[in-house]
Amino acid sequence: MSKIKNCRFCNDELNQFMSFGKMPIANAFITEQEIESEYFFELAPSFCPSCALFQLIEQPDPKMLFHENYAFFAGTSILMQKHFEDLSNKIIEYYDLKPNDLTVEIGNNDGGMVEYLKNKGFNHVGVDPSKNVADAASRKGVNMLNEFFNKETAARIKKEYGEAKIFLAANTLAHIPDINSVFEGIDELLTEDGLFITEDPYLVNLLEKTSYDQIYDEHVFIFNLTAMNNVCKQYDLEVFDVEYLNTAGGSLRYYICRNGKYPQTERLSQCKEKEQTINFYSYKTYMLFKENCEKSKNNLVSLLKKIKNDKATIAGYGATSKSTTIFNYCDIGPELIDYITDTTLTKINKLSPGKHIPIYDYKYFLSNMPEYCYLLAWNHKVEIMEKEKNNYSGKWVTHIPGVKIFE
Ligand code: TYD
Question: Quick one: average pLDDT of 270-292?
Fold first, then answer.
């Protein structure tokens, strides 16, 4: 796919403020034989000075990202499952969901919130373009459509199941380049008093933590409330509430309705106020982020080199998509990281994208404990620390919120 010059939402000219260089597909874990045909694109973020949408200037064709071999199975994190179960219960209670009310979830992966709703007998449909995960959800009895969501999908759902009282997207909206097609679909499908609830990594967290590794091909957008409001306005929708979340490295959940249908909350006003202190329309904001990324990169490479000079072993913990950005931007390969451990079957015994660090299963980790573990899955820190407190006695390396070693 070629680079774009104009905003995917409002079509005004974008400002590119940095480049992370050539990047492979973040979730494309490969075999030795596939190295030669590995696909690269330029990972470079930009912002729209008109609508404040933070977006990539180039994204590989979504069909290359979401397909029959999609590597991410949401079921790998217990805390994330609990997080989604909590939201599905909240929807039932707060919004007084009736069994016949339809809930549609896009990007519901191998189950999602609609799986919990299904288990409780609620009307639901999941929509996911990646065949392997959509099939896994179908096998659990979730009503699934294995396709990309847009206005046409919405019209078909409406015909077959009726209008949606609840429309859900968790870590999905940021993945879809044609943002207008999703909003057109929501406009088509949502009941007059319907709710659109969406959550994604939050740009404010990303800028504050310098978590540049949240920038990778799938995240074509990193949202903030300012930009989300601008998009909603176009479709006579409005954000009436927001919720800060610790998930996915710091996310914002947006509660959206048709104009004036729900009262705006105090939390929303506070978030708006906070965002007014950051100028999302200005180059300066992003130049500071760029400088912080360079500092983080230099500190990380120095630290890993120092550890290696002392002849210690370093394993990466969690073959995350995020780590593809880190390793390729910082030029870190098997000379610094001995191996990466991960519990996902589709990643085990493959090589990391671009830098080709071997990925081994958890058993290997338990019998080949490294002296240092680089916490690549830092978004699951609480869960991982709990799991490893009696197993692993070595040191941890992190780059969030700053590069450091911790015990
Ligand atoms: P994820 O949170 O999806 O991050 P990203 O969006 O950057 O890919 O990925 C977490 C990865 O870490 C996933 O491959 C599973 C792995 N993982 C473990 O190996 N062990 C664990 O205990 C946890 C929580 C995750």
Answer: 96
pLDDT in tens, 206-244: 999 999 999 999 999 999 999 999 999 999 999 999 999
What's the DSSP call for residue 144?
E
Tell me the pTM. Answer: 0.93
Tell me the C-alpha to C-alpha distance, in Å, between residue 282 and each of 50, 220, 267, 287, 288: 10, 20, 25, 9, 11
Tell me, what's the pLDDT at 1? 59
Given this model, what pLDDT does residue 71 score? 64
User: How far apart (Å, rounded) are the C-alpha atoms in residues 300 and 142?
Assistant: 43
* 320 close to ligand 1 (CB < 6 Angstrom): yes
Domains (range + CATH), the chain: 74-283 (3.40.50.150)
- Rounded to whole angstroms, the Cα distance separating 225 from 99 reads 32
Residue 80 confidence (pLDDT): 84
User: Residue 334 — φ and ψ, nearest 5°?
Assistant: -65, -15
Is it the case that residue 316 has pLDDT exceeding 70?
yes
DSSP 236-304: TEEEEEEEEE-GGGSEEEEEEEETTSSPPPHHHHHHHHHHHTS-TT-HHHHHHHHHHHHHHHHHHHHHH
Is the distance from CB of 263 to CB of 242 less than 8 angstroms? no
- Closest ligand 1 atom number to CA of residue 380: 24
Pocket test for ligand 1, best of 172, 317, 320 (most atoms within 8 A of CB): 320
Length of the chain: 407
Is any ligand 1 atom within 6 A of the Cβ of residue 200? no
Q: Residue 373: pLDDT above 80?
A: yes
Element at 328 (helix H, strand E): helix 321-330
